[in-house]
Amino acid sequence: MNLKNHVQLIGNLGNSPAISTLQSGKKMARFSVATTEYSKNNNETKTYWHNIVAWGKTAEIISEKCEKGSEVVINGKLVNRSYEDKTGIKKYITEVVVNEIICRPKKL
Fold this sequence. Notes:
- This protein is mainly β.
- The protein has one domain: CATH 2.40.50.140.
- Helix content is 9%, strand content 60%.
- It contains one helix and six strands.
- Strands 1-3-4-6-5 form a five-stranded mixed β-barrel.
């Protein structure tokens, strides 16, 4: 395990994973995960949203087993990238690329 760039998130899926197939034939799943932090000092909770990407067989399994609201434990790495939007403006994004995932069905 590479501990130089390692992220572990425990949270809930904000949306069902969207799977797509690239021209190369490789599968990719994208979804968001919400994590919540509780502060004892001011008795408040704060929610953070994380962009998640999975590739290959992992992407396929996630799209079959996980849905909006599912609790997940994700081990992965942080990746920063940039792209130009339709208007030509450069955008920056940080994503977590999944190495391992545990998905628990959403609570009823």
